[in-house]
Amino acid sequence: MTSSTTAWTVAPEPVGSPDALALWRAYYTEVSDRWYLLRENRRTDPDELEREIAAGAEGGLTPPGGRLLVARYGGTAAGTAGVRRTADPAVAELTRVYLLPDRRGRGGAALLVAAAEDAARALGASRLVLDTRGDLVEARTLYARLGYRETAPHNDAPYAEHWFAKDLG
């Protein structure tokens, strides 16, 4: 019998690969729709969705300053996490942590975040920061469980409502 964690693999992948692009589309669609459904009782306008997906695909996640990690469950792409350098060389930012809904609850998120922490260390960071929204309760719970502490704002991102950090020592 295979445990849920041994079915997972996590590896760097180009942001333009078909799997990475499909996961970016799924991520952006979910978080955008969630925002609009909560605040305006509607889904994201399809034209807006396509513009934003195209505009944000790279997201600073290309070497040498960033990395996109893709998690696979049983060999099938199931999630992402990104790490990118900040202006402070000792700090990297965690972004785009996402698992497909049918793969959640199987240990993949913690593995993705651990791999992202390793990628941040490889970029020279000793601290990892992130921001998230208030309605992404599951994300906030995950980060707290993994040792991230809520902090004062470290950016002025338009949708950021909670900021977290973790020392990687």
Would you kindly provide a written description of the structure presented here, covering whatever features stand out?
- InterPro entries: Acyl_CoA_acyltransferase, Bact_Acetyltransf, GNAT_dom.
- Keywords: Acyltransferase, Transferase.
- This is Acetyltransferase.
- It holds the Pfam family Acetyltransf_1.
- The chain has 169 residues and is an alpha+beta fold.
- The chain has one domain: 3-Layer(aba) Sandwich (Aminopeptidase).
- Helix content is 34%, strand content 28%.
- The chain is built from four helices and seven strands, in the order E-H-H-E-E-E-H-E-H-E-E.
- The protein is globular and about 45 Å long.
- The model has no long low-confidence stretch (mean pLDDT 91).
Task: Give a topology summary.
Elements: E1 8-12, H1 18-40, H2 46-56, E2 66-73, E3 76-85, E4 91-99, H3 108-122, E5 127-132, H4 137-145, E6 149-151, E7 162-167
Parallel strand pairs: 4-5
Antiparallel strand pairs: 1-2, 2-3, 3-4, 5-7, 6-7
Keywords: Acyltransferase, Transferase
Protein name: Acetyltransferase
GO molecular function: acyltransferase activity, transferring groups other than amino-acyl groups
Q: Which properties best describe this structure?
A:
169 residues, alpha+beta, Aminopeptidase, 7-stranded mixed beta sheet, 4 helices, 7 strands, 34% helix, 28% strand, globular
Q: Which CATH C-level class is it? A: Alpha Beta
CATH topology: Aminopeptidase
General shape: globular
> Low-confidence stretches at least 5 residues in length (pLDDT < 50)?
none
Class from helix and strand fractions: alpha+beta
Number of helices: 4
Mean pLDDT: 91
**Topology as a string of helices (H) and strands (E):** EHHEEEHEHEE
Major sheet summary line:
7 strands, mixed
Organism: Streptomyces glaucescens
GO molecular function: acyltransferase activity, transferring groups other than amino-acyl groups
Keywords: Acyltransferase, Transferase
Pfam family, one: Acetyltransf_1
